[in-house]
Specification:
This protein is of the alpha/beta class. 29% of the residues lie in helices and 26% in strands. The strands form 3 sheets. Strands 3, 4, 5, 6, 7, 14 and 15 form a 7-stranded mixed beta sheet that branches. A 6-stranded parallel beta sheet has the order 10-9-8-11-12-13, with helices on both faces. It is globular, with a radius of gyration of 20 Å.
Length: 333
């Protein structure tokens, strides 16, 4: 068991990224750990979640400069003044991007060791997987026989969303940004049609893959791919807006075709909804049962990119935002 330290090492943003994210935007700093108050416990983090949406917080001021950053993490309780949390137990919490953190019961959930690989709780059985499940099933209400398009479909959220659509009985189309991601989705995840949006004729390929139009678009990207999806969407089509990766690392991220979007939605009664999973916690048990069972049977495949050591965190973020990562990215401590 890990001994209790007096300080923690944590990841800071030291300058606002004005363009593509750089490792120079980050620093690793040391911070004092407070003495535990009643109801608190000390967590030694094991896995840190690296998520693309954090990029927005780095740039817009939500994440303060020269201060500890946050992300989802899984760690082990090493010291406790909380009656319900004992040393040796594993917990998930949102005080990641550091090696040690102080937890409180209302901010954590226990994780049963050995039931599934720990990495699954960071990806397909974690918050990212839950975003895919809620977006496809509750927000977009995908039904058997419908055509479903998922963008950024080789990421931690998109890769689960497109496989869930396949298991529901939908016709699946995915967009990615590299040949290796295309191959993984087609050969490992069983996706019917995978299109590289970096190819010059990707719009034509997308239209050819959806000759009868599009019923559901699971959007992780925004921008030009949302434009293309809306140009193909059928009347009564649904769009679940989960992310906007195209906006995260660009000085001019948003589409200039807002008028075209509005007209398409008005004339075809298209529903476009953003969402947050905190509003759908009632679905968590069903999500865990369904996705856990599919994972055990091999019906859903998952990929994890593991970086070792807290010092690897800045490069992990840079590579993720640049599209160089497949599946879920985690830092292992």
């Amino acid at each position: 068991m890990t001994s209790s330290p007096s300080t923690a090492r944590e990841v800071h943003i030291v300058r606002r990224p004005a363009g593509p994210l750089s490792t120079a935007d980050f620093a690793i700093a040391e911070a004092a750990l407070p003495d535990l108050a009643p109801g608190e416990f000390l967590i030694a983090n094991r896995l840190l979640s690296i998520d693309p949406v954090r990029r927005m917080f780095f740039a817009n001021g939500t994440a303060p400069l020269n201060a500890g950053l946050h992300s989802f993490s899984i760690g082990e309780v090493v010291e406790s003044r909380h009656s319900d949390y004992a040393p040796g137990e594993l917990v998930g919490h949102y005080k990641g991007l550091r090696d040690f953190a102080v937890g409180r019961g209302e901010e954590t959930r226990k994780i049963v060791a050995g039931e599934y690989p720990l990495e699954w709780h960071m990806g397909p059985l974690g918050v990212g997987g839950f975003f895919a499940y809620v977006g496809l099933i509750e927000i977009a209400r995908a039904r058997p026989g419908e055509s479903v398009l998922v963008s950024s479909a080789a990421g931690s959220v998109g890769s689960l969303a497109v496989q869930l659509a396949r298991l529901i009985g939908c016709r699946t189309v995915a967009t990615v940004g590299s040949a290796d991601k295309q191959a993984w989705l087609a050969d490992v995840a069983g996706v019917e049609t995978v299109i590289d949006y970096k190819q010059a004729d990707w719009r034509e390929r997308l239209a050819a893959a959806l000759p009868d139009g599009l019923d559901v678009y699971f959007d992780n990207v925004g921008g030009a791919q949302l434009d293309a999806a809306l140009s193909l969407i059928n009347p009564q089509g649904r769009v679940a807006v989960c992310g906007m990766v195209s906006a995260y690392d660009s000085a001019t991220p948003f589409s200039e075709r807002a008028g075209a979007w509005t007209w398409r939605m008005m004339t075809s009664q298209v529903g476009l909804r953003s969402y947050h999973v905190r509003d759908y916690q009632r679905l968590w048990p069903a999500f865990q049962r369904s996705v856990g069972g599919w994972l055990r049977r091999g019906a859903i495949r998952t990929e994890t990119q593991v970086r070792d050591g807290l010092d690897a965190t800045p490069q992990a973020f840079v590579d993720l935002i640049a599209g160089r990562s497949l599946g879920k990215t985690v830092v292992r401590l």
